[in-house]
Every structure is written in C-alpha cells, then in structure tokens.
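2024-03-11 09:14:02 INFO worker-7 job=invfold-0412 stage=load source=structure_tokens
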C-alpha cells in the first residue's frame, strides 16, 4: 500500500505570486485549466495501490480548499485530506509531526512532493527504480539536469554514475557543485522518520541546553534538504532517479504560463478532451488551448498557442489572446489583444485595448535551461516580465498596458508601461 504527501506551504509563502495569491492560495491557482495541485493528485491517483493523498500545509482550512478536496475525492475516488501544521515546520518537520497519520494503515512507502513544481511525475518509474535498487535505500530523489549557473538556485546532488547513489547534497550552493538538481519529488520508506527523529531529538537537546531558548527556532522545524539529505548523502541511504522529461518550478506568475504550456502539450496523450479544436462556428485555435466549457467566445476570436480560458470568461469579436491565462469571470471586449499576460478574475479589458507582457521563458537554445527565478527589480527598474492584472481590474478602451502588475480592484484611466500599479 502507498500514500502521497504534498507540501503546500502556507499564506506567507507564494509572495512571488502576488497579486494573484491574494485571491486564491497559490497551490490552487489554475495551470492549464485545473488547479496546480490537481496535476499532482491525478498522477498519484494513477499509481496502483495508492490509498491516500495528504495535503500538508499551514493554511487555515478554508472554503476553497474544502471544496477542492471534495471535488478531488469524488473525481478520483481516493481519500484526499488536508492536515494543518500549527506553524511552518519546514519540509521535514511537518511530515514528522504527522508521521502517525502518514504511516497509519502500514504503507510500504510514500511519495512526498512540493506543490510548486510541474512535472510528468514519473511516479511508477520511481517505484520500479526503488525496487531495482533494493530496499537498502530509504529514499529516491527525482533529479534533473540544469545548467551550471541555474543549478545554484536548487538543491544540487552529486550522484555516483554507476550506482545512482547520492554522494553529496548541497542546498542552493554558493558555487557550482553538480548539474543534477533536486526536483522536490521523492519516494520514501517509513525508515526516513528514524533519520528525521534523530534530528528532532538533537534539536530538542540543543534547545534544552540553550541559555536563551526564545532566541532559537523551535525544535520541530526541520528541513529535509539541509538537515536530512545533506547528512544522508554518502551513507548509501539515498539514490537519484534522473528524469529526461519536463520539469519546472512554479514560483512566479510568469512560470505559471510556462508550466501551462508544458501541461497543455502533455494533454495530447493524457487528456486530449481538454484541448480545444477548430470547429465550425467556433474561434480560431492555434496550437494548444484550453477553454472551459462555460466560456462564451465570439467565433471571430483567435486564441493560442498556450492559452487557458477560465470559467465564464467572455471574449468579444476579433479578440486575440496568445501565451496567456484568462481567469474566471473576465471579459475581453471586442478587438482587444492580450499577449504574455494573466488577466485576473472578473477583470475587464476594454475594446481595442492591448495588454502585453514580456515572456520570461528559459533559453530555448539550452536544453538544460530552467525558468529564472526573476527578481522584481533590477538596476532600480521593474524587470520586464509578464503583465498581471489582479482580480476585478478595469482596463478602459484603446489603452496599452505593458510589462506591468496591476493590483486588484483598480479602474485604470490611461496607458501604463513598466509599472506596479498599487
Ligand atoms: N507544509 C509545509 N510546506 C512547506 C513548508 N515550507 C515550504 N513548504 C513547501 O515545500 C515546497 C518547497 O518550498 P521551499 O522551502 O520554498 O523550497 P524551494 O526554494 O522551492 O526549493 C525546494 O524545491 C526545489 C525544487 O523546486 C529543490 O531544488 C530544492 O532543493 C528544495 O527542495 C513548496 O511547495 C512549499 O510550499 C512548511 O513549513 N510546511
């Protein structure tokens, strides 16, 4: 029997996702038409023997999350539960705190995944790989190759090429360590809790001996990467399964558009029914496009490639949308044009208006390039990136909004470029 745990973080996380994470917790933000987490859940539900999926985070339970859990249980006929940490306990502290819940029913192993990644989730391959490498290892880490510069933004693993064992692990190193990076997707046997428990005990001891107990962080906060992997690497406890398939982090809104593109192209073999097709009386579709069945789209509109249109969206005559996500309830009036942008819930783009951003895709000439974790400002100016309209923003007719971030509930009255509109 198997289980899966997805680390969804909490409200302080997801700051690079603002202003979109004001309205919906980042893990529920739609990527290729469905909440980011649904891609994880779909992959887990396909694994034979999967009994339960646990979402672990420090969000207060809320209506949106509850509704999502209900829908997932009904759709995938599997138990999907949310467990709330009393504080941010780190990537290993949370699973350790809830170890009895995770191990109840006696799973032989469990998957652990970061919520903010997109991937083909080669879970079956990881299981097989673990079987082939014997039971000696308590964990399999999914790894992928990154270029040398970008590898510094991730956990880096030195791998024995013959045995696939992790020899050395450094989280976000200052200088180059290895071009094999940690994808944030793991398979663990229950044995992992012995190692986390040892760190917990050590933290407790140190805390008791500490003269200023308030000055130290709580013993329960444990980081899988720094506290566990670094120690276990080289101990013949961890091995690395390297994927050749797509994988990306979803940290910023720009990376959500990139992740949408990856999932939309995967739909050709996983969910062809989710891809829009050209048909009589319908809009012109170019490349991969998702359209929610309730969207109302004028037949003269042109959409794609890489477009996701949410629930109840209205697109007028002659509208053009490319490389963008249009969230539910938004209206794009006649002849408006939206490129490389996210249009927030219930926003309106006026007639002949143009909303345009600059894509921040990985370098297409480098097979190992990843999305850059963009900084908002560079050299005192806003870094050109995708344009984001928060929820309920009104863009008047005939204006241009370029490379800007517009916070929710704004009525703009003119054109803007390279600005954050508060
Ligand atoms: N439940 C819970 N989840 C958490 C907590 N802290 C982080 N998370 C979740 O754990 C995941 C990792 O988040 P970060 O701690 O922000 O790490 P990172 O910068 O994304 O780096 C991690 O992922 C990279 C791959 O995307 C890895 O390369 C890297 O080694 C590391 O694992 C995210 O899904 C986040 O929501 C916590 O205290 N509690």
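2024-03-11 09:14:09 INFO worker-7 stage=emit residues=422
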């Amino acid at each position: 029997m198997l289980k899966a745990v997805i680390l969804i973080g909490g409200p302080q996380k997801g700051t690079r996702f603002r202003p979109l994470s004001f309205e919906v917790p980042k893990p529920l933000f739609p990527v290729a038409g469905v909440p980011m987490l649904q891609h994880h859940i779909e992959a887990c539900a396909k694994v034979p023997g999967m009994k339960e999926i646990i979402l672990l985070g420090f969000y207060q339970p809320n209506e949106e999350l509850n509704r999502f859990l209900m829908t997932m249980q009904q759709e995938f006929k599997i138990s999907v539960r949310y467990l709330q940490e009393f504080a941010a306990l780190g990537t290993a502290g949370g699973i350790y705190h809830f170890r009895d819940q995770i191990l109840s029913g006696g799973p032989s192993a469990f998957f652990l995944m970061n919520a903010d990644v997109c991937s083909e989730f080669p879970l079956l391959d990881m299981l097989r790989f673990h079987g082939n490498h014997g039971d000696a290892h308590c964990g399999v880490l999914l790894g992928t190759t990154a270029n040398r510069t970008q590898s510094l933004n991730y956990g880096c693993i030195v791998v024995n090429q013959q045995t696939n064992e992790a020899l050395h692990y450094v989280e976000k190193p200052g200088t180059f360590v290895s071009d094999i990076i940690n994808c944030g997707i793991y398979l663990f046997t229950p044995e992992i809790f012995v190692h986390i428990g040892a760190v917990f005990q050590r933290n407790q001891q140190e805390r008791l001996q500490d003269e200023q107990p308030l000055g130290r962080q709580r013993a329960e906060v444990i980081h899988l990467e720094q506290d566990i992997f670094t120690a276990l690497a080289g101990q013949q406890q961890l091995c690395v399964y390297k994927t050749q398939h797509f994988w990306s982090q979803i940290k910023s809104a720009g990376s959500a558009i990139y992740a949408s593109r990856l999932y939309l192209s995967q739909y050709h073999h996983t969910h062809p029914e989710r891809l829009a097709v050209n048909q009589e009386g319908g809009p012109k579709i170019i490349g991969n496009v998702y359209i929610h069945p309730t969207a109302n789209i004028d037949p003269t509109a042109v959409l794609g490639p890489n477009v996701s249109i949410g629930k109840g969206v209205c697109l007028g005559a002659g509208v053009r949308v490319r490389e963008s996500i249009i969230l539910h309830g938004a209206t794009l009036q006649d002849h408006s044009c939206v490129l490389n942008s996210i249009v927030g819930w219930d926003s309106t783009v006026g007639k002949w208006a143009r909303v345009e951003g600059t894509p921040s895709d990985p370098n297409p000439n480098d097979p190992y390039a990843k999305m850059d974790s963009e900084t908002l400002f560079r050299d005192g100016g806003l870094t050109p990136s995708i344009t984001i309209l928060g929820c309920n923003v009104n863009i008047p007719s005939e204006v241009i909004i370029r490379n800007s971030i517009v916070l929710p509930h704004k009525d703009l009255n003119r054109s803007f470029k390279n600005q954050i509109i508060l």
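2024-03-11 09:14:09 INFO worker-7 stage=report msg="The longest strand covers residues 180-188."
2024-03-11 09:14:10 INFO worker-7 job finished
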